[in-house]
Structure formats: structure tokens, C-alpha cells
Write a structure and sequence with these properties.
Chain lengths: 121, 106
């Protein structure tokens, strides 16, 4: 049973930084691409970022590009999201998700339970 | 970025109804289209991938169709546990995007 456990959420002031972690277990983490997806209170899902299995390729949504950095440590089976210059509109539950498949079969087949980030003064 | 537009945004249905949700991409995305279900307070759950492939463990009353830019999620016979919000998502581009969601309620 794949397990993904997010941590690091909390309340932070605008302009400050926060680092989220996603601890993975019960699957071969080092061969899996990983994603972050967020959901603002009462809103829909928003894709945030993705990272290839070896960390060599990363992509970001325009809304976070230049402020957020996705990374991973395969020796620790952990993915990270470093969030800087946070804005009130970054307030959301942040989910990590595991990707599987190739080409048109690419999908997010396992999700964590999420960690809440609140940006407020 | 590729924009994904779902219709309707919400719908009212009854147990036993056939429900259809549509998703339109702003450009051709072949079959790079997934569907997820989300219930309140829970993480999303994958239902359909590659437009029409049923994820393992998902009941067969869920089906997906379409290719190119227009896609459909169908629930053949709505069950009580199917009241939820449904999202389409494209994996065609390097930056993925979700539809705005369709809430299925009583």
C-alpha cells in the first residue's frame, strides 16, 4: 500500500518562507516522478509542480514559478517544496502525489492526505 | 497553458440516474486526459486515465470517452457514494492543468 505523508504546513506571514516535505513508502520512490497539487479553501484543484524520478527535470505552474522550488532526496524517500515570498493566495491544502505511466497513460495514482498552509498577517 | 473547461459546474441527480460530465481542452491533447473524484475532506482519487481506461479497483459504472479536445465522464447508475466533485486533468503538456470541477449533489 503506497503511503505519502505530507508535513511542514502551518501559518506563515506574507513574504516569508516555508518548506513542505512528502515522505514516501511502500513503493520504489527513486523510479517515480512526483507532483505537488494544491487546493485553496472551497476551491478546485491546482497543479503546482512536478519533478522527474532523478530530480533532473522540474516544471512549475506560472503562479508559483520563481518563488517555489521542488526537489527530492531519493536516499531519504522524500520530496520537498520550498516556498518563498509567500502570498495570501498561496493559502491552500498542499497534496503530494505519485505519478505512474508513460505518454497518454501518465496519471496521479496515489495521493497524500495533504498539509494546510495558511498565509496571513 | 492548456485550459480545461468542465460542464456543468454542478448538477443535481438522484440515486440510479445516469450522469454525464464533459471536459473540453483549449487545444488538442490526444488521450492525455484523466478523471478524479474528490469527496469532502479527502484527497482526490483517480478514476479514469488515458481518457477511457478504468483505474484498478474503480467500479465499472464509471466510464470515460473522447479524444482530441472533447471528453466525457459517465456514471451509468449513480450510487449514494458517488456524490462528490469530479475533476478532469490533462497530462499532455509539461505543465499539467485541472478543470474547475463538477459537483454532483442530490
Amino acid at each position: 500500500q503506497v503511503q505519502l505523508v505530507e508535513s511542514g504546513g502551518g501559518v506563515v506571514q506574507p513574504g516569508r518562507s516555508l518548506r513542505l516535505s512528502c515522505a514516501a513508502s511502500d513503493f520504489t520512490f527513486e523510479t517515480s516522478a512526483m507532483h505537488w497539487v494544491r487546493q485553496a479553501p472551497g476551491k478546485g484543484l491546482e497543479w503546482v509542480a512536478r519533478i522527474s524520478h532523478d530530480g533532473g527535470n522540474t516544471y512549475y505552474a506560472d503562479s508559483v514559478k520563481g518563488r517555489f522550488t521542488i526537489s527530492r532526496d531519493n536516499s531519504k524517500n522524500t520530496m520537498y517544496l520550498q516556498m518563498s515570498n509567500l502570498r495570501t493566495e498561496d493559502t491552500a491544502v498542499y497534496y503530494c502525489a505519485k505519478a505512474v505511466g508513460l505518454w497518454e497513460k501518465l496519471r496521479l495514482d496515489s495521493w497524500g492526505q495533504g498539509t494546510l498552509v495558511t498565509v496571513s498577517s | 497553458d492548456i485550459q480545461m473547461t468542465q460542464a456543468p459546474s454542478s448538477l443535481s441527480a438522484s440515486v440510479g440516474d445516469r450522469v454525464t460530465i464533459t471536459c473540453r481542452a483549449s487545444q488538442i491533447i490526444s488521450s492525455y486526459l484523466n478523471w478524479y473524484q474528490q469527496k469532502p475532506g479527502q484527497a482526490p482519487k483517480l478514476l479514469i486515465y488515458s481518457a477511457s481506461s478504468l483505474q484498478s479497483g474503480v467500479p465499472s459504472r464509471f466510464s470515460g470517452s473522447g479524444s482530441g479536445a472533447d471528453f466525457t465522464l459517465t456514471i451509468s447508475t449513480l450510487q449514494p457514494e458517488d456524490f462528490a466533485t469530479y475533476y478532469c486533468q490533462q497530462s499532455y503538456s509539461t505543465r499539467w492543468t485541472f478543470g474547475q470541477g463538477t459537483k454532483v449533489e442530490i
